[in-house]
Amino acid sequence: MQDxxxxxxxxxRKRERAGVRAAVSAPVQNARALRQSPTTAEQLLWRHLRxxxxxxxxxxxxxxxxxxxxxxxxxxxxxxxxxxxxQHADPQAQAYDEQRSAWLQQQGLRVLRFWNHEVVQQxxxxxxxxxxxxxxxxxxLREREVNTED
Length: 150
Prior knowledge:
Layout: H1 2-8, H2 10-17, H3 26-36, H4 40-49, E1 60-65, E2 68-74, E3 79-84, H5 91-106, E4 110-115, H6 116-121, H7 123-149
Parallel strand pairs: 3-4
Antiparallel strand pairs: 1-2, 2-3
């Protein structure tokens, strides 16, 4: 199926005739694989975030950024939502998550973390927290729109 997709793109057909295949980076391949096998919590949250359902914000899932693959990210509002399973309770994993969050914050992103069971058992509370994180960004965006109209 992937070959058919490549052949339907004129640029890809041209490369294919020239014997050149576009290389897909390892992070992109990993992100694609993660999108194919989401956890129950990821599936549930994605149902609420996709198609700009939450405050009109565009979320991407399993999005590669730098050395990491982000569970969910809204680039227009600089917000990352991570869903952690039990493996993240390990002290080494916690240290890694702190390092990862620090790097993301250095890139200008805000990071929200939720446990799998929170997303599954308290979906509305998780969505309210995400919405609250989006609200200041939405207010600043609306403020800019008003100021540019003057």
